[in-house]
Amino acid sequence: MKTLILKWNQLSLVKRIFMGIIVGIILALSIPNATGITIFGSLFVFALKAVAPVLVLLLVMSAISKHKKGHQTNMKAILALYSVSTFLAGLIAVIASFIFPVSLSLVKGAENLTPPDGIVEVLKTLLFQVVDNPVNALMNANYIGILGWAILLGVALRNAHDSTKTLLANFSDAVSQIVKWVINLAPLGIMGLVFDSITTNGLSSLLDYGKLLLVLIGCMLFIALVVNPLIVYLNIRRNPYPLVFSCLKESGITAFFTRSSAANIPINMRLCEKLELDKDTYSVSIPLGATINMAGAAVTISVLTLATVHTLGIEVDFGTALILSLLSAVSAAGASGVAGGSLLLIPLACSIFGIPNDIAIQVVGVGFIIGVLQDSFETALNSSSDVLFTATAEYAKKRKEGKEYMINV
Prior knowledge:
Layout: H1 2-10, H2 13-30, H3 38-65, H4 75-99, H5 119-130, H6 134-139, H7 143-156, H8 162-183, H9 186-200, H10 210-236, H11 241-258, H12 265-274, H13 279-292, H14 295-312, H15 318-333, H16 346-350, H17 357-369, H18 371-400
Helix pairs in contact: 2-9, 3-7, 3-8, 3-9, 3-13, 4-10, 4-13, 4-14, 4-15, 4-18, 5-7, 10-14, 10-18, 11-18, 12-13, 12-18, 13-18, 14-15, 14-18
């Protein structure tokens, strides 16, 4: 038994996760009534969500308190990459929606939702999250608030005694170790999530929306496999695909099944550590990216909005389409501040075409129907690109400084 466990642990985590996926599919097809299997998936996601806020708080506090003057981080470059990627995602989704126009069969079922009144409300919600009560921020996994408090406390502790900084670092290392233990349970967790997804949702209910899903998923795959690699290449001037595929494989797969950027923060932190990136940078950029780096959300908002436009036969000029790209990018960055994420921002985007709110809410209902796949692909794209652009900014900086570097994929 000990030999078997040893051999299992010697396998790479990605191989173990793939085995978990296969076992989950086999179990779902052979014993679909064994609903107890789903508890493994629920426990895994809950464990990641539980440890992630504490990890972010301690890691950022420790990194900033020990930050040495003159040591430059790459946050400006990373924020620029996040912004460019999200805008291009919205633009590509708009172009794809004109090339492959989709009409919807509008549905009821989302009438009780309350979408934001405008972009000002979205941004206001985001700003209020920054000044949230720290205990409340931790309890509700409000990463903007957690980051704000972690940065302030880290700065305040810069002049603290070395023993205090050491204690903080020790707590940070302890939580990081707990994260590693949780991540080692990923194969079991993914097995439970795959079982639950197949037995609960199935795919038959999605067939009526096949064309819409093809446009949505096609856009996200194009961004992940063409646009993002091009952005990476322009910055590091090397073949981007080893890094791109490493991020998709080690971050995107787990994000696809957990469907939670917050739950994927510990996974991304671990990948950044494996890539030997600067801890001072990724301890901030990863949780921040989980909040504002939302290329997948920009695609969802643009595609579903223009599907509504085509359904209603509304003419759209180039200027309005460009405004939609900008609006979807800005809205996507604030999606985490709105209950319901990207889907609830669709009425906001529809408003620029004069589409009534009752029709827009029906489109949100369509979004919930296809959500099992839409949300999975969206989260995989969003979360994997957090690591991708954090690494890109660091490698680009080293290239400009003429330093040699290895991409440890």
